[in-house]
Structure prediction request, 337 residues.
Amino acid sequence: MNILLIGLGNVAHGLLTILQEKSDELSKRYGFTPSIVGVATRSRGTIYHPEGIPISELLNITRKGDFREIENVRYDLDVLSLIQQPDVQVIIETSPSNFETGQPALDYCYAALNACKHVVTVNKGPLVVDYAGLQQRANEVGCGFYFEGTVMSGTPSLRLALEALRGAKITRVRGILNGTTNYILTQMENGMTYGDALSLAQDQGYAEADPTDDVEGWDAAGKLAILAAALFGTKLKISDMKVSGINGITSTNVQSAQQADERWKLIAEATPVSASVRLMRLPVSDPLSGVSGAVNAVTYTTDLMGDVTLIGAGAGRVPTGFAILSDLLAIHQRFKS
Ligand code: HSE
Prediction:
């Protein structure tokens, strides 16, 4: 499988590490032998080699290094030209999410689908802006369009709802969908300041490039919009949702909740006709109050199964890298000839 990687930050680092460490296992167990033929970033340009660029060399330059450290590759192609290269079969979008325009990732997703290339995106922007249009285009061209990592990283929140719960009607979704804010709230319960906890979340690779999206609730709102589109077919703009974040919470607020056997949690909730993200004080008896650190949780309320809850990693390099791997394997399985 020949892959073009768009974005070379934390998530790409997680994916490349997994591909390197599991190379033998992926080949033996699934017959899956990926090759990274191109990389595109906004600030560092592009590199391309149709026979593949060694993952060990890419790992040396993720996040910061200079592309010129990699020799015998082309540096002259722009992203849209790279997408059109006949050797490229799959594009992976890992660049930062823009919730207003979805760009430039939205154009890249359409360019890839129009050229019959499969798309894996962990970038939420394109889906928040145009979920229905992208799905329709992917169906028209018969290509894979996969986005498990956009909600709860590699914890299979979308596959659970769309595949495992197929046949049941989901009437409500409710959960903790942002790892950074849950991590900050947990660290503040352990006595850390808001600022120190946010810095740690950034160091761990949980936070968005601009952590304002995390702490003001927009990242959770983006994920909720994707869930609402996937589950209910809702065309929900995040600007139309009631959204609040955790900015403004103080150590005193956190401690007074603890003294009352309660915890603050940023809760995202949607039904077919409503959606909101808000900070709530939950009793410690509520299952969501026990979800700590960068862990996320989602509860689907269904007609046939009652409540079904999934808890797992919600952010981070390896969990999000795993989300991409699971989508790549789904493409490999579905389209292998
Ligand atoms: N910034 C996001 C979070 C990353 O903290 O949950 C995963 O989408």
About this structure: The chain has a mean pLDDT of 95. The two ends are 12 Å apart (CA to CA). The longest strand covers residues 262-271. The pocket of L-homoserine is lined by residues 153, 178-180, 206-208, 214, 219, 314-315 (CB under 6 Å).
